[in-house]
Design goal:
This protein is of the alpha/beta class. Helices cover about 45% and strands about 20% of the residues. It has a seven-stranded parallel beta sheet with strand order 1-11-10-5-2-3-4, sandwiched between helices. The protein binds glyceraldehyde-3-phosphate.
């Protein structure tokens, strides 16, 4: 707390919470774009936030990404999470294996002593394959579990960075640019106003499910993501934001 006061981080937390109407904002010092230490701190704070909100036998849906991987690193055996189920929020978004939601969910379960279910969905599904996949009873069972989760923990990315990383095709990338996509979260792309401009064709959590999910925790930092985070906040479904100082300052510039 003393360090936070010295950096004025508590003020930043309160201003963001008020400006965007979020229950809790946690800001760690530094910029995770340039500091590995800050990125780790973001992971530590994200893990602490999850521990704070988890209750007995919860279903926790998680996304992929390097920030979520840091959260997984910071989890440990915990009596409160032993009965929890970790599930991927959505399947098949084109990430490399170590950053996929399935991987993160299984690591989190192993670290905490919890359980997990995976969504085995291939990347870049065509409409026809998607339609037959969602009718598969085993997939349907996991999807039902995912949609009935009480907590979601997700990363937020810059739209174009994410499109490149996930090898989104040239035509979709052009249309994302044309639509002014700034941010990506949960496989959805958002413009500056927080409107959805594109949705990745895969199964799992839908944006409309967030309305009845009790605790939505977004974890993302780095100056370069500030504007993206602001647009996801403007979409208006987050309950808790865990970020860093550099992103927080940008977020306040885009209120
Ligand atoms: O949806 C956004 C990404 O999961 C963020 O990934 O934490 O590696 O930047 P990152």
């Amino acid at each position: 707390p003393i360090i936070k006061m010295a950096f004025g981080l508590t003020d930043l937390e309160e201003s963001i919470a008020k400006a965007y109407g979020i229950s809790q904002v946690i800001v760690v010092p530094g910029d995770s774009d340039t500091s590995v230490f800050t990125k780790k701190e973001l992971g530590r704070a994200g893990a602490a936030a999850l521990r704070k909100y988890v209750s007995k036998d919860d279903i926790i849906a998680v996304t992929g990404g390097s920030t979520m991987a840091q959260i997984a690193n910071n989890l440990a055996i915990s009596s409160s999470m032993k009965g929890s189920w970790f599930v991927p929020a959505r399947g098949g978004l084109g990430e490399s294996v170590d950053m996929q939601a399935n991987t993160i969910a299984s690591i989190m379960a192993k670290k905490t002593g919890g359980k997990y279910r995976l969504l085995h969905v291939p990347d870049h599904l065509g409409e026809e394959a998607y339609q037959s996949l969602i009718q598969d009873p085993q997939i349907q069972e996991v999807v039902d579990a995912v949609r009935s989760c009480r907590i979601v923990v997700h990363g937020i990315g810059d739209a174009m960075v994410m499109a490149r990383r996930r090898k989104v095709d040239a035509e979709t990338t052009r249309s994302l640019e044309a639509e002014g996509a700034l941010a990506e979260a949960l496989g959805y792309y958002f413009d500056r106003q927080g409107n959805v401009v594109h949705k990745m064709p895969t199964v799992g959590l839908r944006l409309e499910d967030l309305q009845r999910i009790e605790v939505v925790i977004g974890v993302a930092g780095g100056k370069s993501k500030g504007e993206a985070i602001a647009s996801v906040l403007r979409h208006g479904q987050e309950d808790v934001l865990v970020t860093d100082e550099a992103a927080a300052l940008e977020i306040m510039k885009h209120v």
